[in-house]
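Per reviewer request, we include the raw input and output of the structure prediction for the construct analysed in the revised manuscript.
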Amino acid sequence: MTDWLDAHGGVKGNVAEGFEPVARAFVDNFAERNETGASVCVYVNGLPVVDLWGGTANHKTNEPWRQESATVVFSTTKGAAAICVAMLAQQGKLDYDAPVATYWPEFATQGKEHITVGQLMSHQAGLAYVDPPLPLEEILKVTPVVEALADQAPLWEPGTKHGYHALTFGWLAGELVRRVDGRTIGRYFAEEVAGPLGLDFWIGLPEDQEWRVARLRGAPRPTGEALDLMRKIAGRGTMGARALQMDGAFAPVDGVDPFKTRSVRASEVPAANGVTNAASVARMYAATIGEVDGVRLLDSATVDTIGAERVFGPDESLVLPTRFGYGFMLHCDELVLTQDGAFGHYGSGGSLGFADPSTGMAFGYVMNQMGGGIASDPRAVALLQAAHSCLEN
């Protein structure tokens, strides 16, 4: 299979017998779906069965995508943050049914005293952006945005609606971790998840790892129905636009996406600035549903808790119906994760990580060519459908 991969666009890696359809879908992404550089990895029952990478890490210089290459995965980072919270809940250090203010007393202002950890983790808290807005340099210090969220009134009555907390989710979850454990979420993740599993995955990228980062390539301009949908989701003044860009703080400056900058990658933006590769995403999720080289992150009871549906329906930020557990996207028509029971998270532009307890499959896909949607990118969907079909045969 390796010889076949080398002959098809320089794609490299390993594929177990029976999982060749995933390799073919990966190659097809380059030929048919505008892929630039990417990696994909699949684990089944704690063992890797697909680990592939290919294309270019920098379309300006034609630098090849290597096994060590990584990229910003945007909201796929939320899955890592949610795992950290779940581990603390599993240890009895926090309770999803308890008020957030139990652990973070300053949060109990402006009608937020009864918001539960579970509501916070399922996008029901009504804190989808900070009002009044903060400039990017203040946001990247983390403390100012955390204090602003604690002082802020909810945008809707908590628990009555849900709306995607595109960026604020990470700082809210991160402050919970810090209050309960004492470490920032980036450090907690590094020491309790990435370290034991040997992951190349960072929330707050060390400067000595910058060499890994693949250059992001902007999404094609949407047209027709796709353009109409993006206007509804992220048009000027919409809740989606305010949530996704923190009122313009994360908007491009002179054509440069802030996520391409060292300052953003160095900060802890636990909803969006994770830097990683597919092998690490899949390995992380594999360790939530089983043992990976002696490491298991979550027990079965915790998996059942985090993967249970908490909200399903129209999303105040994303407009379309969304379905969430405690910090994780759940399978539905708009958020394709193979089947009901799977849990994970998409990232803006197309990246994806998830686990499916019923099949034992864990999946990771990252890329540097941004797609035009919020979730269910055609490249990711082609790969996960191919992987799922292999399990059925």
